[in-house]
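Is adenosine-5'-triphosphate placement plausible here? Inputs below.
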Amino acid sequence: MTDDLILRVSGLTKRFGGVTAVNSVDIELRRGELLALLGPNGAGKSSLFNLIAGAVKPDAGTIEAFGQDVTADPAHKMCAQGLARTFQIVRPLAGLSVLDNAMVGAFAKTHSVREAQRRASTALELVGLAHLSATKAGSLTLGFRKRLEVARALATQPQLLLLDEMMAGLNPAELDKFIDVLRSVHREGVTLIVVEHVVHAVMQLATRIVVMAQGRKIADGEPRTVMASPDVVAAYLGDEYVVA
Ligand SMILES: Nc1ncnc2c1ncn2[C@@H]1O[C@H](COP(=O)(O)OP(=O)(O)OP(=O)(O)O)[C@@H](O)[C@H]1O
Ligand SMILES: [Mg+2]
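Reply from A.M.:
I modeled the complex. Tokens:
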């Protein structure tokens, strides 16, 4: 694995009963990329995240990250090595303040309260939530809750951040702000994989797009080329929409 390669999955496969959720997927990711992972519902995007994050074990294939084989590493070890992820459904600890929620992330890597506070504050600053540090997380709007989720992941000081459908349900103003937040995070040097259905947002952000359908990778490359490919159009809209 060369130095600038942060992640390589090879032949990655996960079956749930009769369903092959992830089917022999190969992906290489270089440091500094912002990769968008697209695909219809049930394509296997969240399952791929769960595999990379060490939350579930693959049936076949390997995962290399940060220069080593991490195929068998559990989630806490992946976090310690520099991986963070958010979940499709955001659930902050409603009774705690915004700062305390972000500190929960920081405590994954430090036992010092002062240091956790510092890392949490830096993360809240980056996502534009510093002014709400003392607010109870339960009273935040969805747009702010999603930014808090990103801050909580950032407080673990990741090298690689996986974001699962963070833009769903946001209104246009919240969406614009969220896109800005992701740009700031990317500028800070964090490598990102974002799962999204909001294609126009993805086209503004992604340096590369991978598309999955029925567990398989069906396209991988430069955003405009990928979105124009017949396989991708067919996966989203059906074969009848492919221009011959
Ligand atoms: N824990 C599980 N047990 C059984 N089947 C599962 C499990 N997790 C995922 N699946 C199945 O694997 C397939 C892929 O699901 P996955 O959630 O990875 O898709 P997705 O691309 O994230 O979809 P969405 O866009 O709807 O979030 C689906 O058929 C799903 O029902
Ligand atoms: Mg999903």
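Short version: Residues 1-82+159-170+189-239 form a domain with the Rossmann fold fold (CATH 3.40.50.300).
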